[in-house]
Amino acid sequence: MKKYQVVGIGNAMVDILATEDETFLTENNVEKGIMQLIDMTRAVELYDAIGPAKEISGGSAANTIAGIAHLGGRTAYVGKVKDDQLGAIFAHDLRAQGADYDTVFAGADAAQETGRCIVVVTPDGERSMNTYLGVTEFLSPEDILPEQMAEAEWIYLEGYRFDGPESHQAFAKAIEACKGAGGKVSITLSDPFCVSRHRDAFREMIQNDVDLLFCNRAEMLSMYETDDFEAALAVARSEVPIVACTDSENGAHILAGDARWHAPATEVQIVDATGAGDMFAGGFLWALTSGYDLERCGRMGCVAAGEIISHIGARPEADLKELFAQHGLL
Amino acid sequence: MKKYQVVGIGNAMVDILATEDETFLTENNVEKGIMQLIDMTRAVELYDAIGPAKEISGGSAANTIAGIAHLGGRTAYVGKVKDDQLGAIFAHDLRAQGADYDTVFAGADAAQETGRCIVVVTPDGERSMNTYLGVTEFLSPEDILPEQMAEAEWIYLEGYRFDGPESHQAFAKAIEACKGAGGKVSITLSDPFCVSRHRDAFREMIQNDVDLLFCNRAEMLSMYETDDFEAALAVARSEVPIVACTDSENGAHILAGDARWHAPATEVQIVDATGAGDMFAGGFLWALTSGYDLERCGRMGCVAAGEIISHIGARPEADLKELFAQHGLL
C-alpha cells in the first residue's frame, strides 16, 4: 500500500472572506464569480475597501486535500507559504486536519508574503476571488520531492498553479516521479480564465499525462473553445480515462470510456460558493481511492460540495462521512 | 456634541476559534468557560493541539466598540497591536466597521507579537479562552491621548486591562482627561478571576470613578466576595450610579439608584458564547448615548448579545438595528 492516497500540489493561501452587496463589486471593479490575480498594491486597496472579514485557510488544492484528510484519507499537500503569521495559520489548519505538509517555508527575508485571497461573497452566495499569490507563485521543482510523489496513488494538480514561473517544470517533475512509480495523475482546470491563459499547456498535459480530469461546465467550454457542452465532453472523454465535470445545480457528469453517470447536486441553501469544486474533488478522490465505483465517487463529491457551500469558508465543518451515510452512500 | 459617544480601551487581539469536544479541555488542561492568560510557549502548544481554526478579530472592548460602530455610533478604540499580519487584520476589521483606531502599532522589532486568544468552543456553545497578550500587555500612558478622552461622552474600560504593567496609570490618565471634560466612565469587570487578581484596584476605581458598571453574575459575586447575588447588587448600586449585570439565560438586571429593571434574554440557539457580554455592553452603550431609557438600554443589550452567540465569532453579522426593530425597540 502506498503511503498516500492523494498528494495535492497547489497555491497555498489564506482566504479573507467578507460579505458585500452587488454594488461593491461594480464600485471596486471586482469581476463576479471568477478568480482574478492581483498585486500587493491592489490587495491593500481592496482590503481597505471591504468590511470586517474572517480569515480561514484556503487554496484550491489545499481545500481538496483538507477534505480528504477530514475523511480519514492518507494525504499530503505541496504548496509554498512564507514563515509569517498567515503561513503559520495555513500550515496549522492543514496539519490539524491530518494532512502531511512538508514544503519548506520561504524565509523571513523573502520579498513576498504568504499568499491570500480576498473573497467577496455576495448575498446570492456567489464568491468573487481576488488572489495575491505572494510566495506561492514561486514554488519550484526543488519543492517537489520525487520520493513523496512516488508514494502517491494519485497526485492532484491545481490548474491555478500554471501561473507561476517554474510551475510547469514542477508539475513535470511531480508527474514523472508519480507515474514512474505506477501512480496516476488528476488535474483540475480551476477557472475558465486560467484555462484561456494556459490552454496549450493544459491540453498537452491532458492528452499526455492526465488520468482524471476535474472541471466545471465553464472550464470545459473554455478548454475546448466551444459553446457546445456535449461536444466538449465528447472530446474530453476521448482524451482522458475519467472526466468528472461539475455543473452547478445540475450536479456532476462522470464519464469513463463509453460509460457515463450523473450525480445530482445536494439541495442546500447556498451561503458561500467558495470551494464547492475543491470539495467535490475531495469527496470524489477519497471515494475513488477507497474503492468506491465512479457513480458513488460523483455522488460523494456532490454531497461534500453541498456541505461546503452551506457555510462561510472552504474547509469542511460538518462530518462528511456522516453526511455520506445520511445520503445512503456509506 | 462631543466627537465620540464612546471610546473604549482594551486588550487588542485576534481570536483563533476552534470547535472541540469536552475531552479536549481536560486532556489539554483548559479551564472551561473562563479566560486564562498563557505565554507564547503554551500558545504554540495549544495551537498545535487544536483542530483547524478560523481567525476573527476579537478583544473584549474592541468587540463592544465594533458593535457600537456597527450600530452607527461615533466611537473609537485604544489598544496595542504590532505591525504584523495579525495586527493588520485587527486594525482593518475595527476601521472597516467604522470605528476610529489610532493607537500607534508596536514596531517590527518588538519582542512580542500581536495578541491572540485561542478560543475553544465546545458543543454546548461555551467558550474557553486562552489569551497570549503579546504587545497589548504593554499599552502605556503614552498611548492614551488626553484630547481623545476629552472628546468622549463615555469611556469604556476593559477589566482585562488591569493585567498589564502600566495599565493602571493608563486608565488613570484616561479617566482624568475624560472626567475633566465632563465625560463619564464605564467599566466591565471582564472575568471573575481577573476580578480576584485585582479586586482592590477594581474596588477603588468603582467607588471613586465609575458611573456605569458592567459585569455578569459570577463577576459580581467575585467582586464583593459573596454567594449572595442580591446582597452584591445592593452594594454595587450603592457605589455606582448605574449597574448593568448580565445573568446568562436570565437576561440582565439594570439598577440605578432606587430603580431596577429586568431585561429578558433573547431566545436563540447558542453556537458560540464568545463576546456575549461584550455585545451586551455595545448595545447598551449605543442605546444610552443615543438617548434611550435604561430599561431599553438593557433590552437592546440583550438582543445584541443574542445575535453574537448565535454564530462563531464575537463581531456582529446580522443587522443589529433591524433586530432591535423586530423586537419593537426602535
Protein model, in words:
2 copies of one chain form a homodimer. With 330 residues, chain A is α/β, with parallel strands linked by helices. The first copy, chain A, has a single domain (4-326), classed as UDP-N-acetylmuramoyl-L-alanine:D-glutamate ligase (3-Layer(aba) Sandwich). Helix content of chain A is 39%, strand content 22%. Chain A has helices at 22-27, 40-49, 60-70, 85-96, 146-150, 167-180, 192-197, 199-208, 217-223, 229-239, 276-289, 294-308, 320-326, and strands spanning 4-9, 13-19, 35-37, 54-57, 75-78, 100-101, 115-121, 127-132, 152-158, 184-188, 212-216, 242-246, 252-256, 259-263. Chain A has a 9-stranded mixed beta sheet with strand order 6-5-1-9-10-11-12-13-14, sandwiched between helices. A 5-stranded mixed beta sheet of chain A has the order 3-8-7-2-4. In chain A, strand 5 (75-78), helix 4 and strand 6 form a beta-alpha-beta unit. The longest helix of chain A has 15 residues, at 294-308. The two termini of chain A are 22 Å apart.
